[in-house]
Amino acid sequence: MSTAPPFGLILPSRPVLTNPVVVSPTQYAFTFPSAPAFTHIVAFLLPNTTLPDGTLAGVYVQLPGASEFKLIGAIGTEKQSAIFGVSGSGTAIPGGNGSVEDEMTDVDDTSTTINGTTTVGDVTVGISIEPAATISSQVEVLKAMQASSSTAIVAAKGQQGPTPLSTKVLAQRIIQNAFNFLASFAGNTGPGGQEVIPLKSFQDWWSKFERRIANDPTFLERDADG
After folding, report:
1. 108 neighbors 95 (Cβ within 8 angstroms)
2. What is the rounded CA–CA span in Å between residue 32 and residue 106?
3. Would the pTM count as exceeding 0.85?
4. pLDDT at 79 over 50
5. For the chain: N or C, fewer Cβ within 10 A?
């Protein structure tokens, strides 16, 4: 991979950004004003650029005043660009049912725009080259949270019910569900003696999770056992 920054960023009605701050050889940061308002970000690999084998580039966003970055998706050598919908809270808009590198291709235009009194300032988009398995697992959890939230919203329309779970509790239960499932695959060891879980296990968990959400949309509200 070239030593030059390999990524570019596009925001609607703004110039293309191709000169990020190089935080480290694998981490890059684009910083830009939150105004004018936007709801979508396009991240892409520059021409003639490839990532190292076995890696993906995680795309993260940090809104004005926020102390942490939130993952919104990923790009890679096989899928060199993607459109990400971003809400005013810094979370990815639900959309898309494809692979790790496809999951944010279809986006929803009903997001909260990133401007206004609560988000005035600079937005930072960080792009980090990481092992594909690491990004894949994080994206699967992100997709699971989106699927669960979308299903809960649809189920709640036109009827009253208990107070929805907080994002933190929902995330904890999804992660616990994934951990319980993946724990059965533990035992294989890789370099350094650390346990390694096959990527296919994450895909199997996601398929099982999707089926359960479809059959029982409220199961996460009752327990985290899965």
Report:
1. yes
2. 24
3. no
4. yes
5. N
